[in-house]
Structures are given as structure tokens and as C-alpha cells.
Amino acid sequence: MGIKSFFKRQLRTVIEWKVQDASVLYHRINTPTDEIKNASKLIVSPGQGCLVVYDGKVMAVLSEPGTYEMQTDNHPFITTLLNLVQNLESEHKMRFYFYRSAEMVNIAWGTASPVKYMEPVYKLPVTLGAYGNFSVRVGDAAVMFANLIGNITDYSADNVREVVTSRVIPQLSSFLAQKAYPYQEVDQHLADMSAELKEKTTEELEKLGLTLTDFRIEAVTFDDDTMERIGKIAEMTTEARAAEEVGLDYERVQKLGALRDAAKNEGGLAGAGLQLGAGVQLAKDIFKQEGATTTKDAPTAQPNNDPTNRLRELKTLLDENLITTDEYNEKKQEILKTL
After folding, report:
1. Which pTM does this prediction carry?
2. Locate the SPFH domain: which residues (predicted)?
3. 139-158 pLDDT per residue, tens
């Protein structure tokens, strides 16, 4: 130890957090020595607080701005000279952990892992992510020091984000599993989800000395696989409804689609391995009698034999160019004769 350093350690010091980083929530001040001399001064500025650790214990939490005089067992020169056997080092150490007492706002968060739940309308498991922002402040500096800080020099917004997100995801999974919002309605319930998650997450953070003052979900996003599955189901549902409008069931629409696609191939229907009369055969399949005779036990015809429906379906075949005009007129006359 040089003579200059020796004399420097004997001086009373003034401790303060001069340059306060807006992204730092907790900051340990580096002093020339941890052997703070008796009657040294500590300055706490507005928007700050300070936790003082002396001899390994939290001696005080100073939450009000002001200048404080430190009382220690380290007296200039005397304490140092009395510790010759300890290499002039005192066992009385004092450390200062400043914290931001003002609220830290608009910290962005997002789910690092996907959240899954069963979608009630499409009856399939969906995967989504969520993101938003939150605001937080130190609620109990001593509790936070014991549970989160330890020997960390700086505890920043990134550290807070990691803690909050880790508490949010389980709560979000539980909430969605319970509510099971339909895919189309999730965005309508973002405010409800935000309020519920804020309440649940606040309880968890208070155990760590943090106070969650605001929490918001800005949006949710579904993964590509989920969107693809929902898209397929929506497309099939639309086709089924369209088929119902023209008196066809979904299976018959699929047959029409297959013939239409085959007709577009090179060589037409014949090139696809189909006979030119396939459209007529399809018409026969569609219009075939489900019961050739009428008995007392079955006095009425099946719905598919209704002349109006049969004429509508026949017109659909003609519009799709799956039968010719002559075939259409011939079959139409057959149906009209049954009236």
C-alpha cells in the first residue's frame, strides 16, 4: 500500500449516486474503500433511496432525500493502526446500494416461450405469443435486496423484464385454459387479460420487493401452424355453406371440384383417365333413387328426389361444364315428367 493510498483511506468521504442511469433500478456505489470512516456523509437525491449494509447486515433503508452522517467504528488512523495484525485492514465494512424510488415505466415484455390452449370453436390446440409493456417500482428495498440483488452491482430494466415475464407466462397459460377464448375474440379481451394478469403477477412480485404499477397486453400473435390449420377449417366451412345454398352436400361439392380440376388438365377429362360421360354418371349418382318403390311404411320420397333440388343440382353441373347442353336438356325433361 502506497503512502498516498494509506492517507486516502483515512479521510472521511462523501457518498452519492451522481450519475443515475434511467435503465438501472439498483446500483452499488464503488467507494475508494469499504472501510467508511466515522462521520462520513451520505447524500440521497430526489428520486433515489439508499440501502446501507454494515458488517454484513442491512443497517438502514433511507427513502427520503437528504444528507446523512454515517456512524461507524472506523476512526481515521486509529482504527487502521490498531489492525496491524490484519494488514491494516478493518473488519468493519460498509456498502451502499442506491435504488431508484421513482417509477420505471413502459418496460417492454414478450413471451419467450409459446402459450397453448384448446380453441373452443375450431376444436384444436392453438399456440400463441403475447407482448406489451409494464411499469414497476421498488416496493420494499430490503426484501428486494435479500431476494434479488445480493452482490449484483447493477440491477437493470432487463433483469426486471426477465423476472416479470417468468411470472406472467404461467398465469397467462392458466387464464387462457380457463377462459378458452375463441380465435376470433381474443383481441376483444386484451383488457380483461391485462387486468387479470396484473393482479396475479402483482402478488408474485410483492414477495420479491417489487410493486407492479401497470401491466398491459398490446397484442397476441398465433404461430404459422395454428393459422394454417384454422385457414383450412375456415375454407372447408365456407365451401360447405356454399354447397348448402345450392342444395348440395359437402361430399358432392368435392366431387364437382375434382371433375372441374381434371377438366383443366391437359387432355381434359379423358387425359385424367375419366370418360367424357363422367358428368352424366355423376348426375346419376346425385339423382339416383334411394328407394325405388313407395310403401305404406315409406309414403314419401327422400329429400334428394325432390324435383326442385334435382333441377337445381342439374343446373350446377351444366354451369360447371361437367355435362353438355344436350345432356342437361335430356335429363331436365326426365325430371319434369315426374311432376
Report:
1. 0.62
2. 27-236
3. 999 999 999 987 788 999 99
